[in-house]
Amino acid sequence: MTKNNSFKLIFKDQDNQLIDINYKLHDSIVAEKWFKKIKHLKNIPIDNNESNLVNLDNLKDIYIEFCDFAKITPIYFQNIDQKLLNNLHKIYEQTHEILSKKNNNSILYKFHHSIHFHESDNSQTAKEINVGWGVKEGPLTENFYCNKYYESSIVKNNIYLPWSELGKTPLAYWENKEPNDQKRFNELAKPHITFRAKFFVATSNNTPAVFDSKFINWFNSYKKSWFEHYKIDKWDHIDEYSAPLLAITDQKDELIDCNFLSIEV
């Protein structure tokens, strides 16, 4: 364990008052690896897209801007439904490798976040303060199997490592009515295998709910091949809804509607 395992997060509330929360690093491999990354990034400005600080409401305009950047012809759409969102996500997947290497490519990630914004009711995001550095984290991204470190519940004000794959979780895949196709499921549905230098602060307690029986019945047809593909042996409601614990605090301040300002290590 890292000897200097205490640090502080600074937030600003709606009245522009500063709130500082003291944290102690959790005793785990995941937490220690994360802390080493954060020490490199603590003085680098966070990424607005990764930290949910941009307006994602107008998907149509964001998509047009993305197409202009990608130099592709946009498809016309009037209404936003799940079929459209699935098609747009596939366009993002197909262009990501090339566009991620271009300079000034923030629209690529804004487009991706806007798609997921319109797929969800954003109730989970409202329970979190997300902080990330996007492409600025560079080589600090690594492959690491994180699911075995997931907690059985999320505790208010503690810090956690978010799932952050180029894809969807199995439940999201099913809820978004992606194709009933094993090959596509193995390609798009991902366990937590990418360790990125980002985190979220929980603004409320959360105990993961068990899966809907309809999803369980559907997933039973796909999980064996999926498990073998990613070399894992389970995926349950904890894997879907929870996260690895990074740091704990005993401070009880209300952080809903607060903005992250900085980290002091």
Task: List the strand order in the largest sheet.
Answer: 3-7-5-8-2-1-9
What is the share of helical residues? 25-40%
> Helical stretch count?
9
Principal-axis shape equals: globular
Structural class: alpha+beta
Tell me what portion of residues adopts beta-strand conformation: 5-15%
Report how far the terminal alpha carbons are from each other: 15 Å
Topology pattern, helix = H, strand = E: EEHHHHEEEHHEEHHHEE
Low-confidence stretches: none
What is the C-alpha radius of gyration, as a whole number of Å? 19 Å
Give an overview in words.
- By secondary structure, the chain is an alpha+beta fold.
- The protein has a domain at 6-47 and 127-264.
- Helix content is 34%, strand content 15%.
- A seven-stranded antiparallel beta sheet has the order 3-7-5-8-2-1-9. Strands 4-6 form a two-stranded antiparallel ribbon.
- A hairpin with a 5-residue loop joins β1 (6-12) and β2 (18-25).
- α3 (82-99) packs antiparallel against α4.
- The longest helix has 18 residues, at 82-99.
- The protein is globular, with a radius of gyration of 19 Å.
- The protein starts with 5 loop residues before the first strand and ends with a strand.
- The mean pLDDT is 93.
